[in-house]
Design brief:
This protein is an alpha+beta fold. 27% of the residues lie in helices and 25% in strands. It has helices at residues 2-22, 61-72, 136-144, 176-183, and strands at 52-54, 58-59, 77-84, 89-98, 103-113, 127-133, 164-169. It has a seven-stranded mixed sheet, with helices on one face. Helix 2 (61-72) crosses helix 3 (136-144). The longest helix is centred in the N-terminal third of the chain and has 21 residues, at 2-22. It is globular and about 65 Å long. It starts with a helix and ends with a helix.
């Protein structure tokens, strides 16, 4: 009977050694990844125009006309837009801030991959550029004429004509209070 107890004890020690050996407690856990900076997206600014979505073309078209009228009137405003080109996940989300001086502050964040789920893909940290609204005189003329109802359009994705030009990285980092002050909505 004693030899049975010895076999069971040796068996138990062997099993514990096997189980504990499989769990290497000396290897550190991976460090948690920091959440990406939300930047001005965390401010919760409402868009003054319908949200503009760019895939093959801008949708809805009313977003372009509304943006054109705000640019021409030099009205301080925030616009929201996103661009998704397909072929996996390729998305850029933007806040376009019109301070009302012929410029636009463009705050964008991006994410992309070929084989992944969009919900699991984090955004990159946002970037901020300051751009000129291209050819404001032509835009003013297009929005004041009655000849072509589709002429009054402003498109942030146009490179040049009735879009943005001369974009440079912002020389300062904007926060919610600064943008609210530019918009005249600060408390």
């Amino acid at each position: 009977m004693n030899w049975i107890a010895n076999v069971m004890a040796a068996s138990t020690v062997g099993m514990l050694t096997l189980v504990l050996g499989a769990c290497d407690v000396t290897e550190p856990l991976p460090a948690p990844q920091p959440e990406p900076d939300m930047g001005l997206f965390a401010c919760g600014f409402a868009s003054a125009c319908p949200h503009a979505h760019m895939h093959l073309d801008v949708d809805p078209p009313e977003a372009q006309e509304c943006a054109a009228r705000l640019a021409v009137e030099e009205q301080p405003a925030v616009l929201t837009a996103d661009e998704s080109l397909g072929g996996g996940v390729w998305e850029t989300e933007s806040l376009i801030i019109f301070p009302g001086d012929g410029t636009a502050i463009v705050h964008s964040r991006h994410r992309d991959c070929v084989d992944c789920e969009p919900a699991a893909l984090p955004w990159e940290n946002p970037t901020t550029d300051v751009c000129e609204i291209q050819d404001i005189d032509a835009l003013t003329e297009a929005c004041s004429g009655d000849e072509d109802e589709h002429a009054c359009r402003w498109n942030m994705w146009n490179d040049g004509a009735l879009g943005l030009a001369n974009c440079e990285p912002a020389s300062e980092s904007y926060d919610c209070a600064q943008i609210e002050s530019l918009l005249g909505t600060d408390a």
